[in-house]
C-alpha cells in the first residue's frame, strides 16, 4: 500500500514537472522574436469599416485604423507580403525558396469596403492583396458589394488580384431544424428529401459556370482559384471545382501555415479580420500558427476556445 502511494505521488509530481516544462517552453517561444521559415501564412479579412451597426459585424470587420496598424506591424517586423498567385505557385514548387516571414493578404466576399477603405491603405504600404468575389452579389447588389464594372477597374491595379468565391453558393439554409451549407447537398422542403447527387452536381457545376462566365466577360479570363464560402464544402464540391477549372481551393482551416507541396485543394488560411485582433493578438496568432511543439498546441487550444466564444457571443 505504501509503495503504491509513493508511486502515485511520484507520478503526480512528474506530471506537474512535465506540465511546468511545457509551459516554460511556451513562454520562451512567446518572448522570442517572431520569425518563421519555409512557411507561408495566408491571412483573411472581410470588411474594413468604422460602421458596424450589427453586433455580429465585429466578427468579420476591422476598422481602417486597426487595419493600418496590422500592416504597420507586418512592415515593422520585416514580413514579406506576397501576392497570392506567387505564393500558390511557390508552394507547389519545392525548388522555389520561401522568403522568411512570408504572408499573403486576402479578402472575402467582394465587399465594397475593400475598395473604399482597404485598398487606399494597402497602396500606402505597396502591399499586394486578393479579393474573392461572390458573383451574384456583385452582379445585382448596388450597396454592399462591388459591381462587376468596379471589379474590372480594380483589376487594372497590379497590386490587386481577383478570384472566385462561387456565384451563389455563399449561403446557409435552415430546414428541419438544421443548417445546410449551399456548398453541400441541400434538404428540399417541398419534396421532403435531400437533394439527389445528380441534382447537387448539376447545381454546383451551373454555379461554377456562371462564376466563370462573369470572369470571362469582365476580366477576360477563366479563374483557377476559389475560396470556399465559410471555408466549408463537401468533398464532391472540391472535385467539381477542379472539373470546372479551379486548381487551388482555399479553406478557412487555421490549424497550420502552408508548406511546400501543400494540398492545392486545401490551402490553409488564418482569419484575423475581427475587432478583437489587435497587433498583440496578431503576433500571438502568427507565433502559434508557425511554431511547433507546446506553443502550437496552446495556439490550437486558443483557436478552439475563441471559436466557442464567437459562437456564443458576437461581441467577443
Approximate strand percentage: 15-25%
How much helix is in the residues?
40-55%
Q: According to CATH, what is the class?
A: Alpha Beta
CATH superfamily: Glycoside hydrolase/deacetylase
CATH fold label: TIM Barrel
CATH-defined architecture: Alpha-Beta Barrel
Number of domains: 1
Instruction: Find the structural class using helix and strand composition.
Output: alpha/beta
State Rg.
22 Å
Figure out the total of helices.
10
Note poorly predicted spans: 17-31, 310-316
Mean pLDDT: 86
Explain this structure to me?
One of its GO terms (biological process) is carbohydrate metabolic process. The protein is an alpha/beta fold. It has one domain: TIM Barrel. It is built from 10 helices and 14 strands. Strands 1, 4, 5, 6, 7 and 14 form a 6-stranded parallel sheet that branches. Helix 7 packs across helix 8. The chain starts with a helix and ends with a helix.
Keywords for this entry:
16% strand, 6-stranded parallel sheet, 316 residues, 10 helices, two-stranded parallel ribbon, single chain, alpha/beta, globular, TIM Barrel
Brief overview:
Its main location: secreted. This protein is an alpha/beta fold.
Topology:
Elements: H1 2-31, E1 40-45, E2 47-48, E3 61-62, H2 64-76, E4 80-82, H3 84-91, E5 102-109, H4 112-125, E6 129-133, H5 135-140, H6 148-154, E7 160-164, E8 172-175, E9 178-181, E10 187-188, E11 193-194, H7 197-219, E12 225-227, H8 235-243, E13 248-250, E14 270-271, H9 279-290, H10 294-312
Parallel strand pairs: 1-5, 1-14, 2-3, 4-5, 5-6, 6-7, 12-13
Antiparallel strand pairs: 8-9, 10-11
Amino acid at each position: 500500500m505504501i509503495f503504491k502511494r509513493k508511486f502515485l505521488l511520484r507520478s503526480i509530481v512528474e506530471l506537474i514537472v512535465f506540465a511546468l516544462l511545457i509551459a516554460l517552453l511556451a513562454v520562451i517561444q512567446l518572448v522570442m522574436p517572431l520569425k518563421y521559415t519555409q512557411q507561408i501564412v495566408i491571412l483573411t479579412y472581410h470588411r474594413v469599416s468604422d460602421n458596424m451597426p450589427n453586433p455580429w459585424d465585429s466578427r468579420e470587420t476591422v476598422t481602417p485604423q486597426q487595419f493600418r496598424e496590422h500592416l504597420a506591424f507586418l512592415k515593422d517586423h520585416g514580413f514579406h507580403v506576397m501576392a497570392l498567385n506567387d505564393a500558390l505557385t511557390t508552394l507547389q514548387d519545392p525548388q522555389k525558396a520561401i522568403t522568411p516571414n512570408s504572408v499573403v493578404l486576402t479578402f472575402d466576399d467582394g465587399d465594397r469596403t475593400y475598395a473604399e477603405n482597404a485598398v487606399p491603405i494597402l497602396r500606402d504600404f505597396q502591399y499586394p492583396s486578393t479579393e474573392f468575389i461572390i458573383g451574384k452579389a456583385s452582379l445585382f447588389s448596388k450597396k454592399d458589394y462591388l459591381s462587376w464594372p468596379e471589379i474590372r477597374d480594380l483589376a487594372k491595379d497590379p497590386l490587386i488580384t481577383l478570384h472566385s468565391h462561387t456565384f451563389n453558393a455563399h449561403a446557409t439554409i435552415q430546414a428541419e431544424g438544421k443548417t445546410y451549407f449551399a456548398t453541400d447537398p441541400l434538404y428540399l422542403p417541398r419534396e421532403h428529401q435531400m437533394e439527389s447527387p445528380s441534382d447537387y452536381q448539376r447545381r454546383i457545376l451551373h454555379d461554377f459556370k456562371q462564376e466563370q462566365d462573369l470572369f470571362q466577360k469582365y476580366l477576360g479570363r477563366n479563374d483557377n482559384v476559389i475560396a470556399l464560402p465559410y471555408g466549408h464544402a463537401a468533398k464532391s464540391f472540391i472535385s467539381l471545382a477542379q472539373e470546372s477549372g479551379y486548381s487551388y481551393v482555399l479553406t478557412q482551416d487555421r490549424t497550420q501555415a502552408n508548406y511546400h507541396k501543400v494540398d492545392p485543394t486545401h490551402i490553409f488560411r488564418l482569419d484575423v479580420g475581427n475587432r478583437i485582433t489587435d497587433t498583440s493578438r496578431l503576433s500571438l496568432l502568427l507565433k502559434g500558427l508557425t511554431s511547433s511543439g507546446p506553443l502550437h498546441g496552446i495556439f490550437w487550444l486558443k483557436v478552439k476556445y475563441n471559436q466557442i466564444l464567437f459562437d456564443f457571443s458576437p461581441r467577443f
